[in-house]
Amino acid sequence: MSTIPSGAESAVAPWNEIESLVGRRFVSEWLEISDEARTHFDKASYLDHTESPFDPAAYPEGLVEGFHLLALLDHLVGQVSYVEADAWTGWNYGLDRVRFTSPVTSSDRVRVAGEITQLQPRTDGYLVTYDCVMELEGAERPAMVATWKALWSVDEEDEA
Known about the structure:
Layout: E1 11-14, E2 25-27, E3 31-32, H1 35-44, H2 66-78, E4 81-84, E5 88-100, E6 109-122, E7 125-136, E8 144-154, H3 156-159
Parallel strand pairs: 1-4
Antiparallel strand pairs: 2-6, 3-6, 5-8, 6-7, 7-8
């Protein structure tokens, strides 16, 4: 069992009540992406090795790459949306729709608000659909919107 961060709103249920999560909203804690984290992401994703035809001066100082924002969904949503079970797993299943609507820099704070819009039973668990909005603190427009899918499963023997 996780601890919900202060100021966050959760969508959490026991595995045997998982279907009660449909329509539940969640809000993560605020997160500031440090320059160090941005630099590590750029290095890990080889962005620091890419020769680009684009003029770097055209981008805001400390710009956080869009794929970095996507990667934060797992961290931010995972804190506030999960099932209470001993032996459960969640797998990234994919994204249906993503839009980057405002630039984010390392001096900004973001959080994810959203809703579990669908649970599809499968033989290996449930396919969970999240509608996510990455909010940008103090901004009218969000940083990103995404429809994200994850496969949740549990080892039934451990839950018995």
